[in-house]
Amino acid sequence: MRRVPKWVGLLYVVMAGAFLAWYVAGGHQVEDLVTVVGAFTGLLALPAAVIAVLHRGKSEPTPARLEAVADQLAQGVRQQWEAEAQVRRLNDPFPLSVAWVAADADLVESWPHLRELAGYWPGQSPEAASAGAVSPRGLAGEGGEIANTFERVPTRRLVVLGEPGAGKTMLLIRLLLALLEHRPPGGPVPVLFPLASWDPTRQDLYTWMAQELAQDHPALRAPVPPDPSQDGTGTQARALLKQRLILPILDGLDELPQAVRARALHAINQVLPTGQPLVLSSRTAEYRSALTTPTGTRVLLNGAAGIRLLPLDPAKAAAYLERDAGGPASQATARWRRVIVALGTDTPASEALSTPLGLFLARTIYNPRPDEEITELPDPDELLDRARFPTRPVLDSHLFTAFIPAAYRPHPHHPTRWSVQQAQRTLTFLASHLQHTLGGTPNFAWWQLHKAFLYDHVAIGFTAGLTVGLTLGLYGLTDSFGFALSVFLTAGAISGVTGAIIAHTSRERSPSSGIRWRRRGEPYNPYWLPLGYVFGSLFGGIFESDHGGGLPVWITVGTICGLPFALMGGLRSVHPDLNKAVGPGAVLAGDRHMFWTFTLVGGFGPPLSFVLASVLMIAFGRWLGWGDLGSSVAAISLFTLPIGLLYGLARSVWMRFLVTRIRLAVTGRAPWRLMSFLADAHQRRGVLRQAGAVYQFRHIDLQRHLAEVHQP
């Protein structure tokens, strides 16, 4: 944060001195001097406090150019995926070397056409085109060569094909990190987009990608930095896309419904401009079927080459299992002897263990952790039981079913607070929520959890009404029980209806992490001006009726008391820095802080302004006693705190999540500490993965398997 200029402190000293001189010269009582000076000094501190609140969440200045935004985004993306690669144990016990060859010729553009096309695309130099592979055979490779393979494609457009669990996403992560390693300053930023959350029948591709960027990197919701050479409309996320500063890595075309895959390919061809590098992954059979539209027209991904991932080499798969079990001499490794002999055959076990996903599931289920007894674990030989598992789909289903209990069995270094039954119940509910309520999206965003309930806004309204009604009802007890009951019912009903309306109209609101004043061109919320006028007039009338002074006093007090309401209409949310990896827990903590900040601003802003108005009334000789002032402020606060609560509800999403979480815990569908459970499932159990501010299941097939267990 910037330093406060010296002249500000000097101005405060001059103001304080002038006030003291005026106070003494006016002949006021000396015994009230200490109290009045304390109040006046506190009021002088209000501007500094407001400035500090408005700057909260802004640790760095907003970049002046989109290239600077892209550089910061690249840092955040790198942190995000380096941490995720570690959590997913991509290099533990050693990186699995997935190999690939060129895709079938009928699935991609011909190589001569690619070389010719690259020469015509804007920004493509003949030297770069000639440096590519001379034929599709030059795309073959394995392991860490994926970045070189991508660069050998003349058009830098690549389709990655493979069977379920073949390691497509793992390979895309390695490609993303390699591209970031060699990215020049101001260059395009590779970003991974899971296609399962896109509905091409309702969403434009750019709009969807901009939403995904803003969800994972909330700072990109900010308006475009002022630059005459750039488009000054829209958000930074959309501007980065339009300026080709995002290299899209589109993961999982096969995860879209079959009816819209061809339409999705057509949309990609139409929206992404000529010469835009991109990467697309899909299962092979699903991609082949997507190339033919319902009318029989064949659609290829424009200017794209392709590779097809191969099954894991049996010797490498065996070495991986043995190393994870403790080495050739360990007792745990001996249990894999019969299974290893079957690798490379046509058995379901061999097919299931020919993919990185199958190996991950198998080692989690059958290999012991440090200091864990082998006798407590199932025997890998059961994978060879053809009576139980006659086909690979049946065996895959078994591995998914056994994975959750294996992930939550007792761990010597990372004990879990949740039983296997609790974990199974919660994860099954979450999978069903994603699959059936949210249309199959892989992204679990905690601020969308309220959609699990059909009338969630009613619960929010009931909570707000109960809170406000009890608060004012307790104050009413100073009169009588009957009066308190009427206040409870009236205030609760009004607040409940208002809270329900706010919750219903802000169902798509995203989390907040700070406050700022609206920028030029942003609309001002017009509802706060009449609200400020009404309450300002009310407070001004109360003061004038008690202490006289006529219309001037009424207008003066009313204007000052109404000012906080008018200011609230111009406040806006800010979001975390781009160059920091922001996880779901951090986003929740920031939004929870902003809920209380907005609530306190709305609840105590008007009472503080009433204190300021009262101090200013000294000039009119209408000073009221400190006891009367305290009771007046307390009474005003009882009316404004409900407003602050509703203001916090309208500006953040934490209260809605809190109510939803409590409902889920009471009904037994989720633990009380849901965010701790999700963090543990990601960091310790390997059940979930993290993509920016959202969680995803380790594999989309795991999500679908669990969702089938719990049909709505």
Biggest β-sheet, characterized? Answer: 7 strands, mixed
Which regions have little confidence, pLDDT < 50, spanning 5+ residues? 1-8, 38-44, 46-62, 228-232
What is the assembly state of the chains in this entry?
Answer: single chain
Work out the strand percent.
5-15%
Spatial strand order of the main sheet: 2-1-7-3-6-5-4
- Alpha-carbon distance between the two ends: 50 Å
What's the rounded overall pLDDT mean?
Answer: 80
Counting helices, strands and paired strands, the structural category is: alpha/beta
Kindly provide the radius of gyration, computed on alpha-carbon positions and rounded to a whole number of angstroms. 31 Å
What report would you give on this structure?
It is a single chain. With 712 residues, the protein is an alpha/beta fold. It has 27 helices and 11 strands. Strands 2-1-7-3-6-5-4 form a 7-stranded mixed sheet, with helices on both faces. The chain has a two-stranded antiparallel sheet with strand order 8-9. It has a two-stranded antiparallel sheet with strand order 10-11. The longest helix is centred in the last third of the chain and has 33 residues. The two termini are 50 Å apart. The relative contact order is 0.10.
